[in-house]
Amino acid sequence: MKPIRGWQYITINAYWLGINVISGSLTPLILPLLVEHFVQGAEKNTYFALLRSSGLLVAILVQPLAGMLSDRNTSRWGRRRPYILGGGMATLVLLVGIALAPDYWALFVIGLLLQVASNMAHGALQGLIPDLVSPARRGVASGVKTALEIPIPAIIVGFVVGRLVSPDNVWPAMLVVMGLVLASLLANMAVPEQPLPEEERPTESLRGPVIRLVLLTLIFGGGVGLALLGLWLLNNLLAGQGALQLVVMGLAGLAAMAGSIIVGVWLSARVGIGPAVRRNPSFIWWVVNRLLFLAAVGSVRSFALYFLQDVLHVPNAAATVGTMITIIGVFVLLAGLGSGFLTNRLGERRLTALAGLMAAAGVAVFFMGGTEAVYVGGSILGIATGLFFTANWSLGTQLVPPAKAGLYLGVSNLAGAGAGVVGEGIGGPLIDFFNRSSPGLGYLTVFAMYGVMFLIATATLYWVRVPPAEAAGG
């Protein structure tokens, strides 16, 4: 492994900027506006949820598959670069397609193809630091990666994309996104990657891992489908019951989201790890805690633009969402920097619990109304998220068997995408359901559900026990 020069820490991580500018721009800003343009207001949350949850299911399947395929790629251009370049160039073409989509279903298909292309590059990109950076220098490389993943994209989205995008014209914002994707992609091609020698190519069969990926995708996709079917049947059973129908549907919706995550985690762990995971229930509850938190915080961001438009009646909701994203990104960074000290003082479990309580409080502030409340609530969410990312992951690393850490943590990462499938896939239709009863009620109800999910996530830590190092086996 050759020594890495200073500027190469940037080129190795450059495309993380492009990937995160795409997700930070499309998910909370561009896609909601395009869906709203094509779909009637009363159904826009449902159709947006369908687009998002379907895309996340694609990500569950494609991203790790691309990583595994790049592991065994012997191209003279290197293992990772062909996948990153191919996925990046396809992404640029599909971003044009997103802006030109003539109707919702064209947007839906192009959006799924965009997920394929983007996650093909994403899966290969994750291998560059382990491939090229010595263990002693990976902390530096990871620090550069974090900067290009969180604060820099947040600032760009908040101060540039959020102010350029509008319901009538997404092209100025899209051109900025495409320019950054192209620039970061070209910079990434300067990585000092060498061809993989044929004799070092992995020979293990991909059949087992691919089957597990398909099953994990079906677990979360099928779980959301069954939950929505159950809610539809319950709604028909209670039709005409007035307030009782709304209360029962609200409780059932919360149970569907939390229950889908809990059941999905248990099934995913059994599929991905096997029967041995039963001997490590703390790991399962840690993943449940992680997914409940991620589902709630990600879904709040996804539906923020519609909330600002329909409940707070903000004139330029896109710019406000952009500013909120910047605020959250800055506070995530600041909280992350201070989380090491707090972890040493409070411990990972207590700090994770504190993050869950703070996140619930952040969502509660949204209900006070006005853009000031959104900014304050976003600040609290940003702090909570920064603390959570550090403390929760550190907690998880103490719960996995050292010899199987990659397998266990890999399952938690795959299931993490499933959290978005659940939070948005169920939350979107519920918002439209409650809005039909009273305009704006859906956002208030479902955002309250997300706040309760933060509290449920905190409660699950009761079952998380850090064992002695020698007892963490699986």
Would you kindly provide a written description of the structure presented here, covering whatever features stand out?
It is a single chain. This protein has helices at 6-38, 44-71, 81-100, 104-125, 128-132, 138-149, 151-164, 171-188, 207-237, 243-272, 281-302, 304-310, 317-346, 348-366, 371-397, 405-437, 441-460. It is 78% helix and 0% strand. Helix 1 (6-38) packs antiparallel against helix 8 (171-188), helix 9 packs antiparallel against helix 10 and helix 14 (348-366) runs antiparallel to helix 17. The radius of gyration is 22 Å and the shape is globular. The chain has 2 domains: 1-198, Growth Hormone, Chain: A, CATH 1.20.1250; 206-474, Up-down Bundle (Growth Hormone, Chain: A). By secondary structure, it is mainly alpha-helical. The longest helix has 33 residues, at 6-38.
